[in-house]
Every structure is written in structure tokens, then in C-alpha cells.
């Protein structure tokens, strides 16, 4: 089993979540800072992918081989946020250490600074659904159907990754990280706040990462990327399904067969999800020590 002793390399920070919360923009902004080394490709997935993790810390260090003297280093991989939690059929929830990103990170690098960018859970669930839809991974006709299938028990988190309510149970996922790491080691950014005002992200990075001075770096480095898209026509679904297996087709589908934006959320679905996620918002408000006025505002 890999351990911290397997390599002299120790990351200074990890942005470990969550998907569809602006992590591509955060990665690109950090890559633009002269005092930061991040992998050349976002989402190494070392702690997520079993085959990579078994190769050990020395292998992980190769992703930072371009590190220059004096640079701090770290990785952005939103897939780490939820990976590892398993629901049992008849008993309480349990964690599987062999498949638990949080546990792997704690075991190897217990002192690493952890950052999470989190988004209004309803908007994030909606975004994840439509991303999976245009990529050919989603079978439901629309978001309302997917939500109904999950809340009625037809979709179960222990059987499929396409449970969009479950993936936004922030109180469950963050509680897992808090079981392992002290609260002061976990830092949460709210997607809606830092996107509107990138200085929030700049201040957080400087505080958490102890960034060196770089006069060429600042709020202008936080550029919107990886915007939400939908298929231009439902009939293109068969093509997008091929793209799920062939990256080139997926890239061409995104470029030529999709358009920006998503269909609106049905007001009845929104109201239903407001109640579903209320506990998660209250938990995060307690964690942050303040209210989150930008979430669950209605349609």
C-alpha cells in the first residue's frame, strides 16, 4: 500500500471538489501563477483511480516533475470529493478504505491543505445531469425524470453514479472529510461568490497556500471555462452516446452539436429539491459560520 514514505514528494494543497463548480477555472488560474506548480493536465485522478494509486507516491510525484525551485505544488481534481462512500442495502452507510479518496489522501498526506468549491446543490445537480445527457451517459428524458427516479428509489447510489441528489448531499460528504481532517484544514469556497468576485478566490489562495508574490497574477486569471451545454437537438443523442466511448467523437460533439446553456428547471422540481437539500445548506452554513444567501433562491 502506498504511503507518505514512498516518496519525498508532498503536495502543499489539493482542490478536491466538486465537479461542475468551476474547478477548471481554478486550475487554470493556479497554473498562471509563477509560484505554483500544478500538473500540466487537470485531474490526474491519482487518489481516484485504483490502477494509478497502486503505483505509489513516486509515480504521483512524476506529475510535478516540472516543478521549479521555490514553487508550491498541488492538484485540482473534483472527483475526489465523493469517491469512496458506499451505501449498504440493509444497514447503515459505510466507507470502504480501499476505494476512499479522503482516506487515501489522509493516509499519505495528512497535513495537506484541502480546498473545495461548492455550488448551489440544485444548480449543480441540474448541471451534472445535462453534462451527462449531452455526453450520452444519461437515459432519462429530462432532469425531472432523473430526480423522480432517484427519490422514488429506482436509482440507487450503490448501483449507479448517476444519482444527482446523492452527489449533492454535502453534509454527508463533508462529514466524511471532517472525520479524518481537522476543520481548520478544510477550506470551502462558494462557486457563486468567487465567480462573481474572483478576488474572493485570490484571497483564499493567498491565505491557504501562502502564495509568493507575482505581479502578473490576479483576478484576471480566473476565466470562465467549461461552460454548461446541451445537445442542439434530442435526435443527436445516438451520436453523443458514441462520444461517451470515443473521446474524439465527444470533443466533436461538444464543438459542433451542442449549444450553451440548459433547459430551465421545472418549478415543482425546484421546490421539491429545496426541501431535499435544506439540511445540506444548514450544515454548510454552520461549517462556514454564516448564511448562504445565494443558494436555494427559487426559479
Largest sheet: 5 strands, parallel
Count of extended strands: 9
CATH superfamily of the domain at 4-128 and 162-226 and 281-288: P-loop containing nucleotide triphosphate hydrolases
Q: Which structural class is indicated by helix and strand composition?
A: alpha/beta
What's the pLDDT, averaged over the residues? Answer: 87
CATH class group of the domain at 4-128 and 162-226 and 281-288: Alpha Beta
What is the rounded distance between the termini? 48 Å
Which second-level CATH architecture of the domain at 4-128 and 162-226 and 281-288 applies? 3-Layer(aba) Sandwich
CATH fold type of the domain at 4-128 and 162-226 and 281-288: Rossmann fold
Estimate the helix proportion, in percent: 25-40%
Strand order of the largest sheet: 2-3-1-6-7
| Residue share in β-strands | 5-15%
Number of discrete helical segments? 13
Please compute the radius of gyration using only Cα atoms.
19 Å
Report low-confidence residues grouped into runs of 5 or more: 1-6
> Any idea what the shape is?
globular
Compressed to H and E, one letter per element, the order equals EHEHHEEEHEHHHEHHEHHEHH
Amino acid at each position: 500500500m502506498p504511503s507518505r514514505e514512498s516518496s519525498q514528494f508532498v503536495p502543499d494543497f489539493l482542490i478536491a471538489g466538486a465537479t461542475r463548480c468551476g474547478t477548471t477555472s481554478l486550475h487554470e488560474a493556479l497554473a498562471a501563477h509563477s509560484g505554483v506548480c500544478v500538473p500540466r493536465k487537470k485531474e490526474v485522478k491519482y487518489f481516484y483511480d485504483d490502477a494509478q494509486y497502486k503505483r505509489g507516491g513516486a509515480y504521483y510525484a512524476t506529475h510535478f516533475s516540472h516543478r521549479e525551485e521555490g514553487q508550491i505544488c498541488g492538484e485540482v481534481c473534483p472527483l475526489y470529493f465523493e469517491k469512496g462512500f458506499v451505501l449498504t442495502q440493509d444497514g447503515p452507510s459505510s466507507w470502504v478504505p480501499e476505494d476512499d479518496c479522503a482516506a487515501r489522501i489522509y493516509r499519505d498526506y495528512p497535513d495537506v491543505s484541502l480546498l473545495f468549491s461548492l455550488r448551489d446543490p440544485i444548480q449543480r445537480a441540474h448541471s451534472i445531469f445535462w453534462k451527462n445527457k449531452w455526453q450520452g451517459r444519461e437515459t432519462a428524458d429530462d432532469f425531472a425524470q432523473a430526480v423522480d427516479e432517484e427519490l422514488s428509489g429506482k436509482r440507487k447510489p450503490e448501483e449507479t453514479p448517476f444519482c444527482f441528489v446523492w452527489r449533492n448531499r454535502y453534509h454527508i460528504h463533508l462529514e466524511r472529510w471532517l472525520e479524518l481532517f481537522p476543520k481548520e484544514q478544510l477550506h470551502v469556497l462558494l462557486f457563486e461568490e468567487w465567480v462573481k468576485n474572483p478576488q474572493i478566490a485570490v484571497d483564499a489562495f493567498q491565505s491557504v497556500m501562502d502564495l509568493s508574490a507575482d505581479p502578473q497574477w490576479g483576478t484576471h486569471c480566473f476565466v470562465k471555462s467549461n461552460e454548461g451545454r446541451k445537445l442542439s437537438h434530442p435526435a443527436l443523442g445516438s451520436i453523443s452516446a458514441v462520444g461517451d466511448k470515443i473521446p474524439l467523437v465527444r470533443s466533436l460533439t461538444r464543438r459542433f452539436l451542442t449549444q450553451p446553456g440548459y433547459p430551465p428547471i421545472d418549478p415543482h422540481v425546484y421546490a421539491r429539491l429545496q426541501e431535499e437539500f435544506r439540511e445540506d445548506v444548514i450544515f454548510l452554513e454552520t461549517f462556514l459560520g454564516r448564511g448562504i444567501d445565494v443558494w436555494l433562491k427559487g426559479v
